[in-house]
Amino acid sequence: MKQIIVYDIPDDVTRTRVSHILEDFGYTRLQYSVFVGARTQNTLEELSLVILDIIKDNEADIRVFQICEKCERKIMVVSRIGIDVDLEVMFPCP
Fold first, then answer.
1. For a FRET experiment, which of 10, 14, 29, 80 has its CA 20 to 30 Å from that of 94?
2. What's the pTM value of the predicted model, to 2 decimals?
């Protein structure tokens, strides 16, 4: 199942460490504070423990949205970039 992970972490060091961990777990940056990937429930639980160890008592809001295949087909992208490689959708650029 695909996941979208978003975060709001004020501390630069903590935010950078979390982004590196997400990349280490195979997630791809979709936007600055948004990552996308597909992992098992066990891997998500492992990831959450690693992230908790990183953030400790720092202010952080990290959310994981699990997207089923049916819902994934309903994702709408409005973009001026032109191509969303992850969703394999092309949009005309004015």
1. 29
2. 0.81
